[in-house]
Amino acid sequence: xxxxxxxxxxxxxxxxxxxxxxxxxxxxxxxxxxxxxxxxxxxxxxxxxxxxxxxxxxxxxxxxxxxxxxxxxxxxxxxxxxxxxxxxxxxxxxxxxxxxxxxxxxxxxxxxxxxxxxxxxxxxxxxxxxxxxxxxxxxxxxxxxxxxxxxxxxxxxxxxxxxxxxxxxxxxxxxxxxxxxxxxxxxxxxxxxxxxxxxxxxxxxxxxxxxxxxxxxxxxxxxxxxxxxxxxxxxxxxxxxxxxxxxxxxxxxxxxxxxxxxxxxxxxxxxxxxxxxxxxxxxxxxxxxxxxxxxxxxxxxxxxxxxxxxxxxxxxxxxxxxxxxxxxxxxxxxxxxxxxxxxxxxxxxxxxxxxxxxxxxxxxxxxxxxxxxxxxxxxxxxxx
Length: 384
Description:
The protein is α/β, with parallel strands linked by helices. The chain has one domain (about 5-380): Alpha-Beta Barrel (TIM Barrel), CATH 3.20.20. The protein has 15 helices and 10 strands. It has helices at about 5-15, 20-25, 35-45, 80-85, 90-100, 115-120, 135-145, 165-170, 180-190, 190-205, 240-245, 260-270, 290-300, 315-325, 335-365; strands at about 65, 70, 75, 105, 125-130, 150-155, 250-255, 275, 305-310, 330.
């Protein structure tokens, strides 16, 4: 792990270790991948102006999110296939979050049940929700998450349908997994992953499956997809937010907000926080980069709810830019997954260490001692 000096190092190592289909599922975007390039360009275009001759010998990046103190402003974002990136991947990601004192958000499509993630990690857990067509089964899943100790519910609002990812079709990677000569050669060309992750998982518990789906619909990933009742609901509306607010006893976050008007509606519906996000450029290829809309959303929302951001983070300076634009915290998804694929739990821990160290260096060079000073460094042209 000491040889990994940045997120890109881990990405390159993950690319070598993972089958192509799995790596591209993690790494790439959708359609023409315009939004993927825009994510990087959007963050690169932001400049922060340093203060000179400031004593920065005592620097702190601790913060409070939703009333809970934590040592840095990061949260590990929900991701569906961590269980294939590394053996027992969801548990190892949660342990990495625990090591850094930050929350880990468990995905609806996790391959490890939230109960076992909680028991195996001791981490602070959030739970990400895709609403199913059968709302009764959706609420039963929420009861499971609450029973396992999830403190926050994160409703994904930007995935009404599955996006078009042509590389998945070419690689024959999808759910259900589709056996093919090309996929078989791809797997055999990566024996370390096959033996250390896939074969180990088969021996430990059989073919991986979506662990949160009801037993009647929980089929191995190599078989036909789950039933209609637990398919993505395309009719999710603000009425569902109202129902979730009544049912969920903890904090409620909407993930995927890109309009100021929707942030205001979230406040009106009793939501505690939002994630300004374009889903890491994995869904709508013409979506704006969060950095472009974040200042307007912050201005519209005021301090009436907690605002998080994600998409495109590769450096601690990217975290600093989101915070400078008004975010209270930042979710990271691909970076710890690259680390997990490169080196298991130690790799995920290393990614968080690097992002925190880079954020610390950025603060020092900007002449800051606290992260709440970051908005003061934003160039006037970037303010809205």
